[in-house]
Amino acid sequence: MSRLLLLLACVLLCNTAFAQSTAVLPQAEAYTTRESWRQPTPPVRIADNTWNIGTVGLSALLVRTDAGAILIDGGVPQAADMLLANMQSLGVAPADLELILSSHAHGDHVGPLAAVKRATGARVVNSAESAWLMAHGGADDIHFGDAILYPPVQTDRVVRDGEVVELGGMRLTAHFMSGHTPGSTAWTWTDTKDGKPVRIAYVDSLTAPGYTVHGNPRYPRLAEDYARSFDVVRALPCDVLVTPHPDFSGWNYADAGNPQPEPVSCRAYADRAEAALADVK
Question: Edge-to-edge, what's the strand order for the sheet holding 240-242?
Fold first, then answer.
């Protein structure tokens, strides 16, 4: 009798397991983003060799040189095809993209970089902290946990603070500015505009959206890092400031006739961010 009960129990358990295994998997729940972050726009010229090829609300800069091109940031994950199309419109074929740089490793800025790397064969250059976070697809973010995931990106070259990345005579300098993320980086280079040299600073975000700035157990020196980064940004060579969120630096990519109606200096950008952070606990 006991053997019969055991057999019946086994059949019941097996049937239950089979029913569970054939059930439809749960629906994925992706994070949502602002419409402007997903709104395509034609390339916007920043300087003679520097263009924004991102969306209305997120910068993605293309720097062209005689030896190929450099991409800095890309926007949201679904922007890969748009980026490649905008590159092509500027005469940059996928094989012409040599390097991919970033400001920081959040999904709204580096989301499509894995796809762009596959399509182009470009080498990814990062700070060590950004390299780790991008390799994990944004997982275990200090502030957001696993809330903003994206396809993982492998880094080919890790740079140090002050290191220069050079391609075709264009020299881009990395300036570490920890705060928004531990690996946040500003990039500076000299282009030309109207026949004159112009120093461009692509400066990462200085905001603390929902962060615990003081007494953060995962980032105990966060407030001190922000303070240092404000000083770093103020000292940058900065004739033209561009930021990952263009409105922070006075850019309006939707207005082709006047894309930067209210230019912001690096010093003013840092001063505003420092004043805003003073109200954050």
Answer: 164-167, 170-176, 185-193, 196-202, 240-242
